[in-house]
Amino acid sequence: MKRILAQARKELSQFWRDRLTVALAIVLPLLTLFIFGFAIRLGSQDLPLVVQDLDISPHSRAYGEQLFATNQFKPVPWPLDRPVAAALDQGQAKAVVVIPPDFQRQITQGQPVTIQVLIDGTDANNARFLQNAIRATTNAFNQSLVPQPLPLPVTVATRLWFNPGRQESLFIVPGVLGVVLWIFPSLLAAIAMVREKERGTIIQVYASDLRAEELLLGKGLAYLGVGLVEALVVIGLAMVIFGLGFAGDPTPFLLGTPIFLAAAVMFGLFVGVRANSQNAAVQGVALVGFLTALLLSGFIYPLANIPFPLSMVSNVVPARYYIALSRDAFVRGSGWPGVWWQVGMILVLGLVLFAVARRLLHRMKLPD
Q1: Cα separation of 11 and 215, whole Å?
Q2: Which of 350, 356, 340 is nearest to 319 (CA)?
Q3: Of 96, 103, 59, which Cα lies nearest the Cα of 77?
């Protein structure tokens, strides 16, 4: 134990002497938090929409105004003598609504009216959003024309059980915590391990009686402490700036965070053992760690949408379980009954990474 603590103190002293590394260890996670937290938005707003009103009547103007009253569309002026499809072809609009010339007359006579809607399907998600939004606005306009509709046999009463205000930050920011706290502690640990090789000090370790697990635990303990400082800063600012607050029992999150940081550090040490240069270590963490944490963790895309065989890879991504743990802590609040197995999976994957790194480092040691 004394040798592990001595190794940890040596790593921390080297870390604190490098002011650039200290600054990057704090500044880069904060920049990532701010960029992801403010820039990523899953909902669509201010989509350019052309409304070609060929009737120019009170009813047609009311329908057009109701479309833009949702604040989801941005009006794009378009002359009547130009074909509306050109607005989509030239990329000036994402959708076009054409109101026929006899719009009001057919409504007053009780006849059905057909409105033409052209939607740019390049982005399938935006296309579905536009279709649903225009359909919902049309239904609301129909209800305004018939103030007392016939009672429907079946009605649906909907209530948002979690996040009733539909704040996207409550979904995005807890996910950002998982990405940030996975990437940067592992990156620092990987660079620290590779630095031993580049400076040649790893030979001294090989020649000493320091065992592989003691070297890993010493470095891991040091960068676990650094990761805890990063976590306190990042989580604290996320709670202040984005208004996050614990929705229930916080103990799974408080216990799972150090375990997750330890797994991140072990992943970085594993990459550092395999890499022979700092550039290779950075690329390894960025390629394997960042991409999987971003794309295969459920951070943005639902896990059910990940195709086979990548869906199998997502099962061994620790960030997947920490993001679920984080979102539960700040949004759902189910506590231990709902997230105990996420904590267990993070612990298991961390132990696996430690065992693999230990085995690789043991093979690299020079013979006695």
Answers
A1: 11
A2: 350
A3: 96
Amino acid at 282: V
Tens of pLDDT, residues 285-310: 988 999 899 888 888 888 888 888 88
Kindly state whether residues 173 and 303 are assigned to the same domain: yes
Domain count of the chain? 2
* Domain interval for residue 124: 47-145
B/e letters for 216-227, b = 16+ CB within 10 Å, e = fewer, are bbbbbbbbbbbb
63 occurs within a structural domain:
yes
- Give the amino acid at 245: G
Dihedral angle computed from the Cα positions of residues 253, 258, 264 and 268, in that order, rounded to the nearest 10 degrees: 170
Q: Tell me, what DSSP letter sits at residue 287?
A: I
Residues 136 and 189 in one domain: no
Whether 18 and 62 map to the same domain: the answer is no
Residue pLDDT, tens place only, 179-234: 999 999 999 999 988 887 777 666 666 656 677 788 888 888 999 999 999 999 99
Contact 210, 7 (CB under 8 A): yes
Residue located via tokens 């603590």: 5
3-state secondary structure of 348: helix
